Amino acid sequence: MRELATDVLVVGGGLGGVAAALAALRLGRRVVLTEGTDWLGGQLTSQAVPPDEHAWIESTGCTASYRRLRENIRAYYRRNYPLLPRSRADERLDPGMGVVSHLCHEPRVALAAIEEMLASHRAGRKLEVLLRHRPLEAESDGDLVRAVILLDERDDERTIVRAPYILDATELGELLPMAGVEHVIGAESHYQTGEPHAIEGAPDPLDQQAVSWCFAVDYLPEEDNTIEEPEGYRFWRSYRPDSWPGAQLGWEDVDPVTLRTRTRAIFDGPTDRERADDLWHFRRIFYRKHYQDGLYPSDVSLVNWPQIDYRLGPLVGVPEEEMRTNLRAARQLSLSFLYWMQTEAPRLDGGQGYPGLRLREDVVGTGDGLARHPYVRESRRIETEFTVLEQHVGVEARGDQEGAEPFHDSVGVGCYRIDLHPSAAARGYVDIASWPFQIPLGALIPKRVQNLLPACKNLGVTHVTNGCYRLHPVEWNVGEASGALAAYCLWTRQTPRGVYETPEHLRAFQRLLMDTLGFELEWPESIRVTEARI
């Protein structure tokens, strides 16, 4: 078994993991960063989901390094793509002109931008990246986690990495049970949290948000790109979920805010329109009108639509074989939806099917055209010194109080509606207004374990507040704050709990975040009392 030692071990190379590594590196620490797939970037790359962001992201509401990531993505297009002069000159270039975000783009470009941010640290051997490595077990000694054993899936070799600080940035919070860290799975009950939108009765560990296996498509109307009928198609063709207006493979879905039935086809008019209220434009990641006419035959859209939300079973809290069964079924659902669109979908012109839809395997970098990893909305959550409740951030739950609860121990900010997708427990959408919020340090401090920190969606939130703390810029901020906290603790010989409980250290750490790393710890007053717009 190979052995490595480092200052900070970050297990999981998604957005939070990358941000955690960058923070620790910038503060002078050596880092080992591991990732189960062969792409860093998580939601943004291997899961192929362009960023879900708040309305003010261009000017405020994120860390300096997250803004640099966004700038790097735009710069990549300007350097490498034959953009029209007006597009190249646009300071807020949106490569995909998608509706969901101010910056929709191809996952490979995000991967290149991330690799660029890490390059100088890898050159100096301060950073070692272990791709295709997944955690097998953790070695603990009382309240300390000493090491993690990883499996290299390319050759089945094992590596043990020892570090004084270990960060869990895995998509499902995989280190938590391995290290015996107290954590929560699924939905808490109203009795436990008092949250208006928590479930009634007993807590339900299996009430976890649907996962989605995303894929990218373009559209060549003169071609027939129909795939073979997927093996699960007959099942999914007739499946009718609870809290759903009809068959899952259909244009009818549920508006998550009003809970009313709505019908949206792929195309609402020509495919080259800048904006439209249809599915094609929602997560479009490549806009051909940024280029000379005829250079590219089609836009490219990323399918992360309600029809591919897999809700027949969760990934956490079930036996491994059941988890694998659910993953296989999620893949079949996505392929079945593509096949239905190609062969049976009612068209706005009265026809049936869009056989010109073509899987873009090259965009997601796989052989079958599905993303490298499913889009995971919810993971295990650490039991922490402080837990963010709906009463802290939800507009309805706050009553007459304007703005979210102010946190004196803020280590960042975020903003998004409380957006819960349908769950494996047959719960429908929960999509409710929230205020722009802060990220409290107390939600990063485990109740018992001293040196393992959350670095993605596994911080101290509930099933409900996960709905607004799970998005791209917030995950990045959480990871960056944890990476900085580990570095600060190594420098001062304090523990994370000591920083949290000692006013002098808390203030010093917050100054470090703001002055050295460019964090924002509070919202401008004009935005703080404005409801999240997305």
Rg over alpha carbons? 22 Å
Low-confidence stretches: none
Looking at the overall shape, the CATH architecture of the largest domain is 3-Layer(bba) Sandwich
Strand arrangement, major sheet: 4-3-2-8-23
Structural class: alpha/beta
Count of distinct structural domains: 2
What's the end-to-end separation, in Å? Answer: 48 Å
The total count of strands amounts to 23
Mean pLDDT: 96
**What's the CATH first level of the largest domain?**
Alpha Beta
CATH topology (level 3) name of the largest domain: FAD/NAD(P)-binding domain
Q: CATH superfamily membership of the largest domain, which one?
A: FAD/NAD(P)-binding domain
Largest sheet: 5 strands, parallel
Q: Which bin fits the share of residues in helices?
A: 25-40%
Briefly say what this structure is.
With 534 residues, this protein is α/β, with parallel strands linked by helices. 28% of the residues lie in helices and 17% in strands.
Describe this structure in words.
This protein has 17 helices and 23 strands. The chain has a 5-stranded parallel β-sheet with strand order 4-3-2-8-23. The chain has a 4-stranded mixed β-sheet with strand order 1-7-6-5, with no helix packed on it. Strands 14-15-11-17 form a 4-stranded antiparallel β-sheet. By secondary structure, it is α/β, with parallel strands linked by helices. The protein is globular and about 70 Å long. It has helices at 15-26, 64-80, 85-88, 107-123, 175-178, 190-193, 233-238, 279-282, 320-343, 361-364, 390-393, 395-398, 466-469, 472-492, 496-501, 503-515, 525-528, and strands at residues 2-5, 8-11, 31-35, 127-131, 133-141, 144-152, 157-162, 165-168, 183-184, 211-212, 215-219, 252-254, 261-263, 284-286, 300-303, 309-310, 357-359, 381-382, 410-414, 418-420, 430-432, 437-440, 452-454. It folds into 2 domains: 2-188 and 379-528, FAD/NAD(P)-binding domain, CATH 3.50.50.60; 211-364, no CATH class. Strand 5 and strand 6 form a beta hairpin. The protein is 28% helix and 17% strand.
